[in-house]
Design brief:
The protein is of the alpha+beta class. The protein folds into 2 domains: 291 residues, outer membrane lipoprotein receptor (LolB), chain A (Clam); 106 residues, TATA-Binding Protein. The strands form 2 sheets. It has a 12-stranded mixed beta sheet with strand order 7-8-9-10-11-1-2-3-4-5-6-12. The protein has a 6-stranded antiparallel beta sheet with strand order 13-14-18-17-16-15. The termini are far apart.
Length: 416
């Protein structure tokens, strides 16, 4: 994506940039939710060079091959394209676009929790490398710039070359870091393997799993594992995972929505090498003059801003963590039709720009997605993407899942 051409030259422009960044905090959770749901199946529509003639294999054998794969060393290039049907709103979209260098005071453009959510929209090229569980590197390639996230032992570094900003965290022996719990946000997988592991966790009696021929991906022979819901009502149409015929590593991951059209998410290797990467791939020293943000400082700022991932819901700071999340969240249904019911503390509905709880640009974004609905539960608003839909009732409940809007309304009526 092209860099943001605006320059922060005075207080008025700075205020506008900060406002866009604040508005983006309401939008990014929607995009992240889309990718999280897409981990029930993600997509790549990358070109193949012919269907190799491979020995026959059953779906169970192919799943076991993936599970038994012990490949821990690789490097390569991954292309990820995401089309969740989330509208772009000019300057607001720029608030979380790769070229955006504007940030609110206290924010670091190198913070992984913010930067990696960019993978939820558009097309991105990544360079990845891994050498066991303690050494990984992911770099997002941009126009004349690069963002890198490096994990080496107990050290985690991130660097944004466009702004010359760096982010640093240190793990303790329990695996927890100051500031964040993981080097890469877990709801934004960056390789086909990470995506495949999550979709296979969801496979069960409600899922049809078959072998759908062969393919060649990044010069490697692969089997194609086809995964489909047996249930009706899901927004997920099918998932295809191309699995390396030799070592069982997922090379390509594909999700098609049940509504048809282009893939919702493409993620696959265009180049891959299973040799040991150079040790230098996992070393990093901040360049001269780089602004370094320590994780503890970033955490303090984020706690002020609200819970990442659920920040768009009023009063949701306690959800999804600890006892509060478990008490206020329950799952309705099973398999591909599972719906999460979330009760917001205080029973409050959506914030509005009139109340001053949401920026005007964020309200415009929410209105563009939402449809007013009513039923036995009362009234509320359904927000739609190509994969994830959410019903937010006026009395402070949220129903969300990879299901149709009608399924959400039915779930709310049954719970009334």
């Amino acid at each position: 994506m092209a860099p943001n051409d605006s320059v922060e030259t005075n207080g008025g422009i700075r205020g506008n940039t900060a406002g866009r960044r604040k508005a983006a905090r309401y939008i990014v959770p929607v995009a992240v939710a889309g990718v999280a749901a897409a981990t029930i199946g993600l997509v790549p529509a990358l070109a193949s060079t012919g269907d190799p003639d491979l020995p026959k294999i059953t779906a169970q054998q192919l799943i076991e091959k993936i599970a038994a794969s012990d490949t821990q060393q690789l490097s390569g290039t991954v292309k990820i394209s995401t089309d969740l049907g989330i509208p772009s709103l000019g300057g607001l979209a720029g608030s979380f676009a790769p070229g955006d260098t504007g940030s609110a005071e206290g924010d670091s453009t190198a913070d992984p929790q913010t930067k990696m959510t960019e993978l939820a929209t558009g097309t991105h090229t990544l360079r990845v490398a891994a050498d066991g569980p303690d050494k990984q590197r992911v770099s997002i390639l941009e126009n004349a710039a690069e963002y890198s996230l490096i994990h080496n032992g107990d050290q985690v570094w991130a660097y944004d070359s466009k702004t010359n900003q760096a982010y640093h965290a240190t793990e303790d022996r329990s695996g927890k870091k100051s500031g964040h719990s993981t080097p890469v946000p877990e709801d934004v997988p960056t390789t086909p393997k990470a995506l495949a592991e999550q979709v296979l966790k969801a496979a069960g009696p409600t899922t049809s799993v078959t072998v759908d021929g062969t393919a060649q991906v990044a010069g490697r022979d692969a089997y194609k594992l086809l995964i489909k819901p047996r249930q009706s009502g899901s927004t997920i149409g099918s998932v295809t995972v191309a699995v390396d015929a030799k070592n069982g590593v997922p090379l390509k991951f594909t999700l098609l929505p049940s509504s048809g059209g282009k893939a919702a998410v493409d993620a696959g290797f265009t180049k891959v090498d299973f040799a040991k990467p150079a040790a230098s791939s996992f070393t990093f020293t901040p360049p001269k003059g780089a602004e370094v943000t320590e994780a503890d400082d970033a955490k303090a700022q984020q706690e002020t801003d609200g819970a990442a991932g659920l920040g768009m819901f009023p009063g949701a700071e306690g959800l999804g963590s600890g006892d509060q999340g478990s008490k206020d969240t329950k799952v309705i249904g099973e398999g591909w039709n599972a719906i999460a019911e979330i009760r917001t503390p205080g029973g409050t509905g959506l914030p509005t720009k009139e109340s001053g709880d949401v920026p005007a640009e964020a309200q415009q974004f929410l209105d563009s997605l939402g449809d007013k609905v009513s039923g036995k539960f009362g009234s509320g608003t359904v927000f739609k993407t190509r994969l994830v839909n959410a019903l937010m009732t006026d009395d402070g409940k949220v129903y969300v899942g990879a299901v149709t809007p009608d399924a959400l309304v039915k779930a709310a009526d049954n719970a009334a």
